[in-house]
Amino acid sequence: MTPPAAKSAADGGAVAVAGNAAVKISPRVQAAEAAEAEARHEALLELLGGTPLGVIYLIGPRRSPIGYIALSFGHSIARGGIIGSVEEFYLRRALRGRGIGTEVLGNLLRALSSHGLRALRVETEADAPGAGLFRRLGFREAAGQRVLTRAL
């Protein structure tokens, strides 16, 4: 008898197994995830290659960083100039909760302000573990605003 996971995989889709349950992931979902991963890879290469539209800063020693923060930049008429967005912020799990994120973001906010940035924004889920960090540093939800996005 063929196990369900093996049979599903033979039908042309990946299989995720959790305990005794097997869930087939359709080829269409696999293709979408692969395309998303490729787009992300290209975006990272552009940042690493040097662009005025964004930057990635390593946190900690160059030879063994403990994290990174990726920013993108744009112009805002409403804010009166250049603004930044936190695209990603990562610290090694074992080092979280020690004030490192607060120190990094605090220093970054001062540096960006001294270079003329008018605002820094971050998109996060309200209950995300890192949301409190941003709130403690003065990030607030824009009253009455909701970010709408359309992929192009």
Automatic annotation (TrEMBL):
One Pfam family named in its UniProt record: Acetyltransf_1
Per UniProt, what is one GO molecular function of this protein?
acyltransferase activity, transferring groups other than amino-acyl groups
InterPro entries assigned to the protein according to its UniProt record, in alphabetical order? Acyl_CoA_acyltransferase, GNAT_dom
Chain ranges of the N-acetyltransferase domain: 15-152
What is the official name of this protein in its record? N-acetyltransferase domain-containing protein
